[in-house]
Design a protein that fits this description.
Elements lengths: L1 H17 E3 H7 L4 H9 L8 E11 L2 E14 L2 H8 L5 H21 L5 H8 L1 H12 L2 H5 L5 H18 L6 H17 L12 H10 L1
Helix pairs in contact: 5-9, 9-10, 10-11
């Protein structure tokens, strides 16, 4: 039971430190709850990264105190900026076009910096690939595995992991490839979430950052 309580406290601290409640998102985006619900129903904003449910029963000298089943939704911090960026757009097609523009802008920046490998370039620029990432973004997936859920972090994460996977499969790296690998790990570290305690062992941070640096 003690371990369970410790895990619960650790998870609560992680969520409160790295994510925003729905009320916080609405407040910081300066949007009404009705407007937020409309955007969410339209699939225009990412779904919660985490949904946290609990009930509590406490017994003491003063009697019993209970908290009924409570549900809390936690959103990526970047959700506020995303709402401010897309709230004026008319439909989901326009929102996707904005996502694609942001995606390709960050992609080109990384390409200029030398992070993008030639054999990865074509696949990452395909409409089908970007559309797939958009669906993951709206589903809340990237709110879990990136630092703040921003589009730029999605691109950094994807480029970094593809580079790390390629170079990790080479038996003997050249000096230049070692430097490239280290830069890719640093890039992933910049974009990657810390992950909830119960998720860390299976995370990209454990596999591609901490394990390779150890």
């Amino acid at each position: 039971m003690e371990n369970t309580i410790e895990e619960l406290v650790a998870l609560g601290k992680y969520l409160q430190s790295n994510f925003l409640s729905q009320a916080q998102v609405i407040d910081q985006a300066n949007i009404s709850e009705a407007a937020f619900d409309k955007l969410r129903a339209q699939g225009a904003v990412p779904k919660p990264s985490y949904q946290f449910g609990f009930s509590l029963s406490c017994h003491s000298y003063f009697g019993e105190h209970t908290v009924p089943n409570t549900q809390c939704a936690y959103y990526a911090q970047g959700c506020v900026d995303w709402i401010n960026d897309i709230r004026h757009l008319s439909d989901k097609q326009a929102i996707y076009a904005y996502f694609k523009t942001e995606f390709l802008c960050e992609y080109e920046t990384l390409k200029i910096q030398g992070y993008v490998r030639n054999d990865v370039a074509k696949s990452m620029m395909l409409d089908t690939y970007i559309n797939e990432q958009f669906h993951y973004f709206i589903a809340g997936t990237y709110g879990v595995c990136t630092r703040t859920g921003r589009v730029a972090e999605i691109v950094k994460k994807e480029v970094a992991i593809k580079t790390i996977q390629h170079l990790s499969g080479i038996d003997k790296l050249t000096e230049g490839e070692v430097i490239t690998l280290q830069c890719a790990i640093d890039l992933l570290d910049e974009a990657s979430a810390y992950f909830a305690p119960h998720e860390y062992a299976a995370s990209s941070r454990a596999k591609y950052i901490d394990a390779l640096r150890s």
